[in-house]
Amino acid sequence: MKKHIYLVLGLLGFAALLTSCGNGNNGKGSSGALNSSNAEKVYVAPGEHDEFYAFMSGGYSGNLTVYGLPSGRMFKEIPVFSQFATSGYGYSEETKPMLNTSFGFVPWDDSHHPDISQTNGVLDGRWIFINGNNTPRIARISLTTFETEEIIEVPNSAGNHSSSFITENTEYVVAGTRFSVPVPQADMPIKEYKGNFKGALSFISVDPENGHMDIKFQILMPGFNYDLSHPGRGKSHGWFFFTTYNTEEANSLLEVNASQNDKDFIAAINWKKIEEYVNNGGGTKMPANYAHNVYSDENHTATSTMKKEVLTVDPTKIPGAVFFLPTPKSPHGCDVDPSGEYIIGNGKLSADLTVHSFDKMIAAIEGKKFDGEAYGIPILKFEEVLAGTVKSGGLGPLHTEFDGEGNAYTTFFISSEVVMWKLGTWEVIDRKPTYYSVGHLMIPGGNSRKPFGKYVVAMNKITKDRYLPTGPELEHSAQLYDISGDKMELIYDFPTHGEPHYAAGIPAEILAPKSQKIYKLAENKHPYATLSPADAKVVRDGKDVHIYMSTIRSHFTPDNIEGVKVGDKVYFHITNQEQDFDVPHGFAVIGANTSELLVMPGQTKTIIWEPKQVGVWPFYCTDFCSALHQEMQGYIRVSPANSNIELSWSLGE
Amino acid sequence: MKNASIIMIIGPLFLLGLFAFPLWNIMLGAPQYPEPLGMNIHISGIEGVSEFDLQNIDGLNHYIGMKTIPKPGEMWEFDVFPKVIIGMVILGVLIGLMGFFGKVDFKWFLGWFVLMSLLGILGMYDFNQWLTDYGSNLDPHAIIKVINEDGTPMTYKPPLLGFQKMLNFDVTSLPSVGAYMMFVGMSLTLVASYLGWKKKGLKTKRQSKNAVTT
Questions:
Q1: Mean pLDDT, to the nearest integer, of B52-79?
Q2: B52, A552: Cβ pair inside 8 Å?
Q3: I want to staple B193 with a disulfide (CB 3.0 to 4.6 A). Which of A128, A369, A394, B109 is the partner?
């Protein structure tokens, strides 16, 4: 009898084990229970708002896109370096100067690394900066209007890639050159690159009041490739770190020739020391030619000014200002942890991450632990600055971000994964695959003193089968991981526009309350503004015809215009009289060799129309503004060039 | 009678709140206006709840042919109402002071209350007349003309008090801080009248008692 009982108990126990195993599998596997909880994590109910803003660079779109996290919904594409027909940016007379450069009008760029302004190392949400890689430029975007307010060209630079990272009080936005070039530019054999080309690292000061940028100084470094950078923070505030590759200084087939040295460098720049040197009259003023473009909300117009001089600094002239930290395998990302102690070199041809210690670096400098020099810049001994190595087992580390709780997250391009590891012990805690071949990753505030470590977004370079196919060309894919637990959990996957290189995230509660709703018409200082429909008029000035036109739901004033002739240059200056949130009016006229205009309430925008044919031509509102939107239209009569019809204009006659 | 008189002095002073706060508030919400548009009706004019609300209400109203919301100079009421209120405050305080010095009795307090109530009712009547005219005296060339089921043209008179659905708008019309202060002030004068009456009653009782015993 007893035996039977044991048997029964045993069987029951076994059964219990089986069922509990089964339950466990159900919980962790691909079944519905877990998926539904992940769905809840990313579900933002209709009408609800996301917890974070994510600003993703557009890469070859040249722009900046705004997303919500965790939903992955895209809210806006902010035009920055590329013409944007949607709003008329870069097409309208007011915004064309924004894209002016020393090479003339450049309507496109490759935007890379957004960075949000900081105060005391914490995101303050005033502005976001982003670099144009191709024709070196840095843009500043207002985070109240979410519009580009300023673009400065960077002379002596080429492939503006180790940019646009800011110091912890937004003293500087820093732009480093990826391609070294002759400085100043010169007609010389390419083969003479080695020893002759220079790499300019530019420190652009940011006015704390209005954000206006000005190149304070450029450090002319040896002709390596300066790949990425990040500022020191906390105790390392005052320093800036740049990864380099091609310390071989190859000028052809870099794929092979720039991969020969076992170690390249992280350049450590004591910018406070250089700032002091420059403030005391140090440096050399060099003739230059670069554009500085500023957009004003007051007159809704950009002005472009050519600057003719830049202050350059020879780093060997300032002892103690620049050092090289040997770092294995052509490091790509250069990331500094929230405490400012660890400088991470992501050796992209390696399996390992090299972590340098700021304290050890300072001790090595004081103890003169040098291992030779390169072009007069001391190289610190590798072992003297090394804090540790992360043996991840992954391949191709690119970028690292931090959660503020002692963990770091590194992307591995080749093995297509994000690896979570512990600062200080260098142990790998977790790893999760990405889809596919991840480049950058972003934790809101993940490169500041105070990260908001709830989510990490992985931005992938290859999409393949992640979404419904759309022919050969696909949007990129991003994955969202929940990192609030001990391990990472993949919770969402969404397409992103252009090619996001880096991104910057910030809690919505910092930005949302100060997002501007309208421009005040009473404050509109545009020289061609029509502040009231009564002021609408048409003025001829030789062949130029200026139409001062106002829009309000649902008509243009004037909407009948006569007296324009073939060969005239007609300026449509459109002022939106609305003072109501989200009531833009659009403007388009048949045959215009330019884009439409999308005019926000209180704004004035202008396009040029050059009529080539006699006739009566319509124009209309392109934004479905109101119930009578379809009625919002008008006609302009074009007469032969020799006609003597007087200018006239009217509404409702 | 002293306490009653002090209350009678304080009561009318509450009406001064009408110079700082709106008398009435009308809010207009719609699917397109999750943050409703609103107007605050002051005794001296109509103001938007947010900076551009009046302009935006006028902008919408032009579709249905309503007149624009009157500016202070366009309605005699905005000129007269403040003067009436000031006059009533001065009158009420004077009556209170005279009560304090025993020159008048509670009947004067009650008299002020009745006069104020009459003026208030007249004011409301006038306000309602304006709302009716504003909501039904429409431009014959209006862009949108809505006809009721019985064939009469739809009017857009906002409710004097309470809630009403008008086309896509939810209209809520309620008294505002100024009106509540006026209500409190007038109630105080009623309290003053009551206290004055009670005191007087006691006095007369005592006097008659005294008369019997002597």
A1: 92
A2: no
A3: B109
In the three-class reduction of DSSP (H, G, I as helix; E, B as strand; rest coil), residue A227 is classed as strand
Q: How far apart are CA B36 and CA A555, in angstroms?
A: 24
Q: Which of A82-91, A535-544, B202-211 has the lowest mean pLDDT?
A: B202-211
Mean of the per-residue pLDDT values of chain A: 94
Q: Do A518 and B55 touch (CB under 8 A)?
A: no
- Distance CA(B38)–CA(B26), nearest Å, equals 6
Q: Which residues of B touch A553 (CB under 8 A)?
A: 59
User: In angstroms, what separates the C-alpha of A632 from chain B's closest C-alpha?
Assistant: 13
What are the tokens at B41? 């009706």
Q: Rg of chain A's alpha carbons, rounded to an integer? A: 29
Amino acid at A374: A
- How far is A358 from A270, CA to CA, in rounded Å? 12
> Residues of A numbered 511-540 whose beta carbons fall under 8 angstroms of chain B's beta carbons: which are they?
518
Interstrand relation of A377-380 and A407-412 (parallel, antiparallel or unpaired): unpaired
Helix axes B2-13, B177-213, angle to 10 degrees: 160
Phi and psi angles of residue B75, each rounded to the nearest 5 degrees, phi first: -135, 130
Of the pLDDT bands very low, low, confident and very high (cuts 50, 70, 90), residue B17 is: very high
Token couple for A567: 């060969």
Sheet arrangement for strand A417-422: A397-402, A407-412, A417-422, A428-433
Q: How far apart are CA A64 and CA A505, in angstroms?
A: 13
Token pair for A374: 């390169």
Give per-residue pLDDT as tens, A105-150.
999 999 999 999 999 999 999 999 999 999 999 999 999 999 999 9
Taking every pair of C-alpha atoms in chain A, what is the biggest distance, in angstroms?
A: 121
How far apart are the C-alpha atoms of B182 and B212, rounded to whole Å? 45
Our CA angle for A314, A346, A338, nearest 5°, is 85
CB contacts of A629 in chain B (<8 Å) are: none
Contact A638, A614 (CB under 8 A): yes
Of B52, B143, B144, which is closest to A580 when you measure between CB atoms? B52
Q: Which residue has the tokens 């050159």?
A: A177
**Six-digit token string for A623:** 């934004």
pTM metric for this prediction:
0.91
pLDDT digits (tens, 9 = 90+) for A224-235: 999 999 999 999
Distances (CA, A) of B46 to A630, B32, B36, B71, B127: 33, 23, 16, 7, 12
Beta pairing class for A331-336 and A74-78: unpaired
- List C-alpha distances in Å: A619 to A333, A555, A556, A577: 51, 11, 10, 18
CA distances from A308 to A97, A216, A343, B35 (A): 17, 14, 36, 50
Beta bridge mates, A390: A353
* pLDDT-derived band at A28, boundaries 50, 70, 90: very low
| Residue B59 near chain A (CB below 8 Å) | yes
Sheet holding A301-313, edge to edge: A115-119, A122-132, A137-142, A148-153, A284-296, A301-313, A213-222, A198-206, A172-176, A165-166
**Pick from A580, A627, A628: CB nearest B56:** A580
B50 touching chain A per CB within 8 A: no
CB contact under 8 A, A628 and B143: yes
E strands, A508-647, are 537-541, 544-552, 555-557, 560-565, 569-576, 585-589, 597-599, 604-609, 615-620, 633-639
Shortest Cα–Cα distance, A513 to chain B (Å) = 14
What is the dihedral sign for C-alpha B205, B209, B212, B214? Answer: negative
Per the structure block, which two tokens stand in for A643?
């006609």
Task: List beta partners, residue B111.
Answer: none
For A341-393, write each residue's pLDDT tens digit.
999 999 888 889 999 999 999 999 999 999 999 999 999 999 999 999 999 88
